[in-house]
Amino acid sequence: MMVFVxxxxxxxxxxxxxxxxxxxxPKGALAVEVRGxxxxxxxxxxxxxxxxxxxxxGHDLGGLLALNLxxxxxxxxxxxxxxxxxxxxxxxxxxxxxxxxYPPEPLWSKDSQRWALERVSxxxxxxxxxxxxxxxxxxxxxxxMTQREYEDEFVPxxxxxxxxxxxxxxxxxxxxxxxxxxxxxxxxxxVDQGLWLFRGLAQKQRAxxxxxxxxxxxxxxxxxxxxxxxxLAAFADAV
Length: 239
Description:
This protein is α/β, with parallel strands linked by helices. It has helices at residues 39-49, 61-72, 110-119, 129-141, 147-170, 191-202, 220-223, 225-238; strands at 2-5, 30-32, 54-59, 77-83, 178-183, 208-213. The chain is globular and about 45 Å long.
């Protein structure tokens, strides 16, 4: 069984993410709702939602949550696919990424959601009215994180989780097969950053793969769904 874990921080990420962000899923797959204000709390919400052993597919922050759960409870995870997971990739000291700076107001309007989705994409073709409306609907249902909660609770938990993750990569390694998928033209990060995530995983986990989806940005599963699901299915079948 595949379980899809979305990224995004409600109230902070300019587009409202959620299970809807994945689009059509493979037969029998499940997209879970991530809840909580810390990485540990979010990981716990994913663990509570899954039923039995599964392959976890996580986008951005969801990728780190999937890897976190694979470290905590490898008996529940048959494999992990981290998709455009900036949250899990090594944190550098480069120039801040301004792709999503100064979003139009009001933040959770259709125009604002469309702007954010288009900004993180290689092509705007996939940004349909249906997707925009789903994001607006999700924004209305979420409990947004305040800037204070983000800085005092979420960010320290993120740094702690990343530190633990890379320590595990250097020591015993992640115990389940891992795959990293990146968009070739991701405005939020470089392919090289995805490669460094893969290299960290591959230090002690031989069943590790890295794939680049051409003509895709931060949402390769929406921009190039056929290519994405082909790569995903091949890896899940192999492990």
